[in-house]
Every structure is written in C-alpha cells, then in structure tokens.
Fold this sequence. Notes:
mainly alpha
Amino acid sequence: MLRSELYDQAHKLRQMKGEDLEGLNVEELGQLEKKLEAGLSLVINTKEERTLNEINKLQRKEAQLIKENRQLKQEMKMTLHREKLVTVNSELINNVSISSNSTPPLDGDSPNSSRLPLRS
Length: 120
C-alpha cells in the first residue's frame, strides 16, 4: 500500500514537472493546469512579499546612511573650522612673539626723531 502511494505521489510530481502527461485527457490536463497556476500564484506572492521587504529594508538602510553622511559632513566642517582657527591663532601668536622679541629703536635711531647737531 505504501509502495502504491509512493508511486502515485512520484507520478503526480512528475506530471507537475511536465513529465508523464501522455495518459491525461483534456479535463485532467485542465485540473493540473489549475493546480500549477495556484502554486505559481503562491510562489509569485511570496516572492513579491520578500522583494518588498528587501526594498523596505534597503530604503531604511539608505536613510540611515544619508543621515550618517550628513553628520560626518557636519563634523568635517567643524573640524576644518577649528583647524582654521588654530592656524589663525598660531599666526597671531607668532606675530606677537616676533613683535615682542624685537628691540625698540633708540631715540636717535628712530626715523622720525629729529637729530640735533652736537655742540662742542
């Protein structure tokens, strides 16, 4: 009995694969077609559902990456701004240091000082 059931199931499977169709009449072929269409419909629906889920997942990931990209750009701008400030501050410190290290001109050495003739 099991052997017979196994044979029948294997035969139906072959028919669903499009094999062993010689003994089927038009009505049986129509029934097989309906079964295949129903199965195909389930496969298509499952595929569409999984595809939509994957699209939604990718869209969420895209939104997250866009958000992270904006944050990184903002951090980069802030870093560049800080580096510019550090550079400007360094230049100011260097200029002040150079100015304070130079000796002031003596009274007679100043270009604007008036030179009085020496009296003897």
